[in-house]
Write a structure and sequence with these properties.
This protein has 8 helices and 24 strands. It is of the alpha+beta class. Among the domains are: 141 residues, D-Amino Acid Oxidase, Chain A, domain 2; 90 residues, Rieske [2Fe-2S] iron-sulphur domain (Rieske Iron-sulfur Protein, 3-layer Sandwich). Helix 1 runs parallel beside helix 5, helix 1 runs parallel beside helix 7 and helix 3 crosses helix 7. It is globular and about 60 Å long. It starts with 24 loop residues before the first strand and ends in an 11-residue tail after the last strand.
Length: 501
């Protein structure tokens, strides 16, 4: 399962111990080498700061390398949610931040010869029941200052009942962008260290110590004055951001399609969600279809929804042949606005960037601009719409309470349900959690190999469930994900699942 963007990239072995004792300090440490982390690092390096980027896997291994990579200010039905909850003033500042992020990205790509396709974006209704949501989005976009318009028809082969159109948006392959940022970071004296996972932090504004572990099991400390957590969801629990966002998993597939491929970027308002764009490749354009999303760890069989998505693509694009399949994780903030800023109010040593809600290309770049400016002593006027701590969060309290009621239910359910599976402890394929609460065990069979691990998530003790599409263990509490053998993949957890007793 590899995305179109990550496929065919040369594999590079990670060094067993990538940092010697003389190379373990920096002015700023950025954790995560995705779009937010690398742009933040480059901006700080341009200002003369000594910057180190720590990446647990490889650049783009998280959301950036598995996105649909739409650089769009029309973001599904996002604007109507923001206007409805916060009013047009906050929505206008959110748009200003996204616009600055979009312009920075496009200008950087143009300056470095990176291909960007300028296309119209559409938030469309698949049926009559989706029209009111699309109309509401049009009204909200116009209130926020976007020059959106309504169209009744489009040159598409799938059901279309009208849409909001925002002209001259953009899309691209994000990996050449990351490559250019890595080159510039190196040229400016910054360091990218791969295969290093940050597990905890200690200290305060007078200095931080980050405890890290390599894939080979080496452990050591890195010293820094300030730290930016650009990890999708913050890996440190202080600030409680794991309880303020809802993790979701969504899927994409790329196809070779005979004849013409739909131009423009499309996202439906009504369910099931359908996302459509094209992507140029050396072998011709590919169709990218996305959807089948679900809360992490809470879908009984994601593969069924994925099959429906595949059937939808082949129905509306006859002769389509799937070439790639991948998935990504995103985080929906309780108050619909990203959280960008200090991990705790008044503390300027650890910063976070999360809650991009599937729009990380513009939001992630805006977050990098806001964080770099703050660390360097400046500020962005629009950044208050992205604040990690702000009075506007009060509007998200009911949603956050609901999120955490769901978490409590899933926690209890996870510890009780496996008792009913004691007689089904060895699956022929896939995975199952079984046993009494004092002896829970997660077993899976992948490619004929059986794995046995503890199902207790190393974050806050939730019981993982099996994702039969991604072939991974997922925690339904806060979205931590693990490989079949228990190796940590992503999420707020910082340690692997332990071995089964």
């Amino acid at each position: 399962m590899t995305s179109l963007w990550l496929a065919d990239r040369p594999a590079q072995a990670l060094p067993p111990n990538p940092l010697d004792e003389s190379n373990r300090t920096a002015d700023v440490v950025v954790v995560g080498a995705g779009i937010t982390g690398l742009i933040t690092a480059v901006l700080l390096a341009r200002a003369g700061r000594d910057v180190m980027v720590l990446e647990a896997y490889r650049p783009g291994a998280g959301a950036t390398g598995n996105t649909t990579a739409k650089i769009s200010l029309l973001q599904g039905s996002k604007m109507s949610k923001i206007v409805g909850r916060h009013g047009k003033g906050v929505a206008q500042r959110y748009v200003e931040g996204n616009l600055e992020g979009q312009e920075w990205l496009i200008q950087h790509c143009e300056a470095h010869g990176i291909s960007v396709q300028r296309e119209d974006a559409f938030t469309y209704a698949q049926s009559a029941r989706g029209v009111p949501s699309a109309r509401a989005e049009l009204k909200a976009c116009q209130a926020a200052g976007l020059p959106a318009e309504w169209v009744d028809d489009a040159d598409v082969p799938f059901p279309f009942h009208g849409a909001v159109r925002l002209a001259h948006q953009a899309q691209f392959d994000p990996m050449p962008l990351l490559d250019s940022l890595i080159v510039e970071l190196d040229e400016r004296g910054g360091r990218l260290v791969q295969g290093v996972r940050v597990q905890r932090a200690s200290g305060a504004d007078d200095g931080l110590t980050l405890h890290v572990r390599t894939a080979e099991g080496h452990e050591f400390d890195v010293s820094t004055k300030q730290c930016v957590l650009a990890t999708g969801i913050p890996i440190l629990d202080r600030g409680g951001f794991f309880a303020r966002v809802k993790p979701s998993r969504s899927y994409c597939m790329a196809y070779q399609v005979p004849g013409d491929i739909t131009r423009g970027m499309y996202l439906s308002t009504d369910s099931p969600t359908r996302s459509v764009r094209y992507a140029p490749t050396p072998d011709g354009d590919r169709l990218i279809v996305g959807g089948a999303g679900h809360p992490v760890g809470r879908k009984k069989s994601p593969s069924k929804s994925l099959q429906e998505l595949d059937e939808w693509a082949k129905e509306h694009y006859p002769g389509a042949v799937r070439t790639h399949y991948w998935s990504a994780q995103d985080y929906t903030p309780a108050d619909q606005l990203p959280y960008v800023g200090p991990i705790l109010p008044g503390h300027e040593s650890i910063f976070v960037a999360t809650g991009f809600d599937k729009w990380g290309m513009t939001n992630g770049t805006a977050a990098a601009l806001a964080l770099a400016s703050r660390i360097l002593g400046g500020r962005m006027d629009w950044a208050q719409a992205f604040a990690s701590w702000s009075p506007h969060e009060l509007s998200g309290i009911p949603t956050a309470v609901y999120y955490n009621l769901e978490v409590g239910f899933d926690l209890a359910k996870g510890w009780v349900t496996p008792i009913t599976r004691i007689a089904n402890r060895t699956p022929r394929s896939g995975g199952v959690v079984s046993g009494p609460p004092w002896a829970l065990e997660a077993r899976c069979v992948v490619d004929g190999v059986e794995h046995r691990v503890s199902p207790v998530c190393t974050h806050l003790g939730g019981i993982v469930n099996w994702n039969d599409s991604d072939q991974a263990w997922e925690c339904p509490l806060h979205g931590s994900r693990f490989a079949p053998d228990g190796t940590l993949l992503e999420g707020p957890a910082t340690r692997d699942l332990s071995a089964a007793d």
